[in-house]
Write a structure and sequence with these properties.
This protein is of the alpha+beta class. Helix 1 runs antiparallel to helix 2. The longest helix has about 40 residues. The mean pLDDT is about 75.
């Protein structure tokens, strides 16, 4: 009986963490895609040929809004723009057609069940090796999106 309870606990831990990982990955992927499209968007006002692009403040506000929906801190998001073939950053207000906007975000997911399982697994494998099998802080989920201004 105790082994059955332990087995169920392990399965629930894996299932909970797996669902949390998948949900976070989906949310981050959607967030980075939406933000890079917004940052690289050029719109024209009516019949005028004047280009209108979002300011850095507007992009950062959009980024903050999208980050909150994905349960990510805005500080965990970086938006970088550069010209093709160059590594020099371009301010978002100075983007021209063809420039590249890249957004990166990282979030560590964790839950109490995962932390307990990580500590137990690391303690058990610590007898054989000094390396941690599972990161006790959680699993890092990363998403990156790149979009060309146009």
């Amino acid at each position: 009986m105790p082994l059955a309870v332990l087995a169920i606990a392990v399965v629930l831990t894996a299932l909970t963490t797996g669902v949390q990982f998948a949900w976070t990955d989906l949310a981050l992927s959607s967030a980075v895609g939406a933000t890079t499209r917004f940052a690289s968007n050029v719109s024209y006002s009516g019949t005028s040929n004047v280009q209108r692009r979002g300011t850095a403040d507007q992009v950062h506000q959009w980024q903050t809004d999208v980050a909150s929906e994905a349960h990510v801190e805005p500080d965990d998001i970086s938006v970088v723009a550069h010209s093709p073939g160059s590594t020099v950053e371009v301010p978002l207000e100075d983007l021209t057609v063809g420039d590249i906007v890249t957004l990166k975000v990282e979030k560590t997911i964790s839950n109490p069940l995962y932390r307990v399982a990580a500590h137990v697994a690391n303690a058990v494998t610590g007898v054989v090796s000094n390396d941690d099998v599972l990161d006790p802080d959680g699993i890092a989920v990363r998403a990156t999106a790149t979009n060309e201004v146009g």
